[in-house]
Amino acid sequence: MADHHDSLKGEPPSNCSNWFVEWFNHPLYLEVYSHRNHEEATHCIHTILSQSGLKYKNPASLTALDIACGAGRHALELARLGFRVTGNDLSPFLLEKARKAAMQNHLSLKLTCCDMRKIEVDLAYDLIVQLFTSFGYFDSQEDDQLVLQKVHHALRHEGCYILDLINPSYLIRNLVPHSARTAGALNIVEDRAIKNDRITKNISIIPPQGETLNFTESVRLYSKDEISGMLQRVGLAIASIIGNYRGDAFEEKKSPRMMLLCKKI
User: Three-state SS for 174?
Assistant: First the structure.
């Protein structure tokens, strides 16, 4: 069974102005991204295990950490496969969704609540995943570098780290500045722009009744060379790069994702 709610340590700072604190803790977040479903997460995890070689190991002997786990799509799949899994996120709302899903599916899942810059564990994990563009949130590159340092500390020797980023070369060529869609009863309008090495998305959520809600997402874009240098500085070596959740080879101009499979050295 899943850990009880008392495993959720800490709360996000109430005075924090960072966009992700409010947005990821809002009930409508999961409705806006309802198309990011269990099937996609299953494909992603099986690709990771295949590409990293971990599918040939006994999962019951392995520990995994899902950084920015959200409602637990990927963490739950790892737990279902037999890994001993910890999911970490800043959002109590999303972690509660993950806890309930683990209980409903009779899965063991440890959950912790803290900023990814403050993860304090050493030599604990064989696998760390950071998926669905959950890197580059912070104003300073130094904070992103700190996250990588925390990952290095948390990995066991020769442990694997999977970092899933937007491929900026593809995004620049294929950016959709404006789009509108529905999610259930909601109308969702999204406006996107690239400025100062960041992709910013303004989201307007229009319910059937009541006022329109507005949220912003902003993520720093890293080129392959930039992120490679940052990983190398903390002792993480890139073993391979794949271009999507199906496991296709990375092509800088054609791949929508840049999933870096790294080893601790």
Answer: helix
Closest Cα to residue 107, out of 230, 18, 1, 242? Answer: 1
Q: What is the 3-state secondary structure (H, E, C) of 80-115?
A: HHCCEEEEEECCHHHHHHHHHHHHHCCCCCEEEECC
Tokens of 91: 């959002």
pLDDT band for 34, please (50, 70, 90 cuts). confident
CB-CB contact of 81 with 143 (8 Å): no
- The encoded tokens of residue 68 equal 């920015």
**What is d(CA 200, CA 65) in angstroms, rounded to the nearest whole number?**
28
> Which pair of tokens denotes residue 151?
């990952």
DSSP string, 71-84: T-HHHHHHHHHT-E
Q: Which pLDDT tens digit goes with each residue over 54-66?
A: 999 999 999 999 9
Beta-sheet strand order (sheet of 186-195): 178-183, 186-195, 198-206, 213-220
- For the record, the structure tokens of 229 come out as 């240098």
205 forms bridges with which residues in the sheet? 188, 213
Using DSSP, state whether 262 is helix, strand or coil: strand
Whole-number Å distance between alpha carbons of 113 and 247: 30
| Residue pointed to by tokens 């990814």 | 116
Structural domains in the chain plus CATH codes: 5-167+222-264 (3.40.50.150), 171-217 (2.20.25)
